[in-house]
């Protein structure tokens, strides 16, 4: 009742560096895809970016006022 070695066959998948047809589907109609994504999700983009940009601009303004505050 000893352990018997089991032969395993490994399959290795690789892409040929000479075959460039793999990525063509990503770049086909790229401007159309980008326009479609932006037009569908513009409200989500605004709701995400508005607080980020607002916080960043507030921090920049506060830091500038702090730098100028010691002058007077």
TrEMBL record:
Q: Which GO terms describe its biological process?
A: mitochondrial electron transport, ubiquinol to cytochrome c
Annotated membrane topology: Single-pass membrane protein
Coiled-coil portions: none
Q: Which GO terms describe its cellular component?
A: mitochondrial inner membrane; respiratory chain complex III
Q: What is its main location?
A: mitochondrion
According to its UniProt record, where is this protein located? Answer: Mitochondrion inner membrane
Q: Which SUPFAM superfamilies match?
A: Ubiquinone-binding protein QP-C of cytochrome bc1 complex (Ubiquinol-cytochrome c reductase) (SSF81508)
Q: Which InterPro entries match?
A: Cyt_b-c1_8-plants, Cyt_bc1_su8_sf
The entry's family comment says:
Belongs to the UQCRQ/QCR8 family.
Put simply, this protein is called: Cytochrome b-c1 complex subunit 8
Higher taxonomy: Eukaryota, Viridiplantae, Streptophyta, Embryophyta, Tracheophyta
């Amino acid at each position: 009742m000893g352990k018997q070695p089991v032969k395993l066959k490994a399959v290795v998948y690789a892409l040929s560096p000479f075959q460039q047809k793999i990525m063509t589907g990503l770049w086909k109609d790229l401007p159309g895809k980008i326009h479609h994504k932006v037009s569908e999700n513009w409200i989500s983009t605004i709701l995400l970016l508005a607080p980020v940009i607002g916080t960043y601009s507030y921090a920049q303004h506060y830091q500038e006022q702090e730098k100028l505050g010691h002058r007077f």
